[in-house]
Amino acid sequence: MAVAADASAARVSGRLARFEDEARTAPIEATEQLRAELAAAAGPLVEPLEDGADGELLVTFVWIGEDGPVSLRAQLADRPGAFSHVMDRVEGTDVWHLSSVLARDLRLTYRFVIRDYMTDLESLRRLDYEDALRREIELVPRSFADPHNPDRLPPLQGPEDELPPPANWASVLSLPDASPTPHFYRPSETTGELTSHRLRSARFDNERTVTVYAPPAPSVDATSLLVLLDGEWWLRVADLPSALDNLHAERLIPPTLAVFVYNATYTSRMVEMACEPRLPAMIAEELLPLIRASHGVEAPAEHSIIGGASYGGLAAAHVAFSRPDLFGNVLSCSGSYWWGLANDPDEPFRWGRDGEPEWLTRQYAHAERKPIRFWLDVGVLERGAIPQAPGVDQVSANRHLRTVLEAKGYDVTYQEARGGHDFASWRLTATAGLQTLLAE
To answer: Average pLDDT, stretch 213-238?
Structure first.
C-alpha cells in the first residue's frame, strides 16, 4: 500500500476557495455555512469542472474537526495505488479538505481517519501483517464516516467481533450517473433460514463459524450450492441473505443453498487463502460433509459455485482449479491474482510462491482446460503499484487471467465495475454474477 501523491496536483474546489476567503474575516460563520452546505449535499461537495471535461466532476471531501492531522481513506482515480490521502487544513479553522477529479458514474467508499499510520511510508514498509492488522484495529475509534452522508457500510470485522457504532463505518459515495443499487437489497417480506455451525478443521488445526442460508419457503429443495469465503463479510457488510431472498422470490436464480465460511482469524485468512493446498482439502473433506449431513444438499459440480472477494477470489479460483469435480463455477470479485512473487521464502503470510507474480494464472495457462465457468470482476479504480507484485495491479492481473482463460477455451464473463476494491461494488457484482452462473 502506498500513500497519496502530492495533494497539490489536484484541482482546487471553487467552493473551498470561497470558504478560505470568507474564513479570513469570519471563520466561525463561514464554517457553519459550509457545514450547512455539506448537510444539504448529503456528503462531499460535487462541482462541474471549469474546463467542462465531459463525464468528470470535481469532488471535494470535507471533514470538520479540531483533532488532526486528518486523512481520507479512499481509492481515487487521480491518485492510483494509494488508499490514504493527507487532507489540507484551512488556516485558522477546523476544516480539512481534499479535492479529486472523478468520473460521474463512480460509486466508492470513503472515510476520514485521524492520525492515520498509513501516511508514514517509511514506517509502513517496516510493518509486518500482524502489526498492520493491530494498527487497523486500534484505528477504528479514530476512523469516521461522513456525518452528512447516510449511506454507509460496516467495516470488515472478524467473525466474533461486534460492529462499531455507525459513526465509525465507511461512507458510500454514489455520483450522479452511478448505476442504482439493485432492488434486491430492499428488506424482503419472506426470509430464508440462517443456521450456524461450528466447524473444527483438522487440516488447519483451528475452528470457525459456518452460516448456512436456505431459500425461503415456499420453495422446493435447493438444487444449487454457493460456498462463499470470507463469509462474515458477505453477511455483515453485503447483507447478501436479503438479496438472495429477493432473487429467489423473483425466480432470478434457482433454489440455492448458500454457505458462508468464516475465517478462523484475520491472520489465518492470509495463510489459508494464498493458494494453500489445505483449503480445497478442508472444503472437500470437512465442510461439504457437514453441509450434506446437516442440510441434505449435494449439488453436482455444474450447479456448485465457489466464490469470494479480494484474497477470497484468488482462493475460490484455486479451489476450483484443485477440485473441479466439486465446483464447476467461480464467482470472483476483485480477485488478488497478482499474488505469486515470493521475495522472502520465510515470509509467514505467504505473499508469494516463486520468483514471479500471478502464480495461479500461470497454473491455469499450463494445465489442460477444466470444466469451470468464471465470473470475474474488478473495479476501474483498482490501479497502481502493489508492493508485493511490482509491475502488476489489480486491474491488469484480472485482465490477464481473463485473457488466459479465454485463450484456453473457458466460459468467462468479465466485468469492470465503476468503483473500487470494496463492497459498494462487490454487493452489486456478486448478485449479477450469481444470476449469470446460475442461469438455466
So the answer is: 89
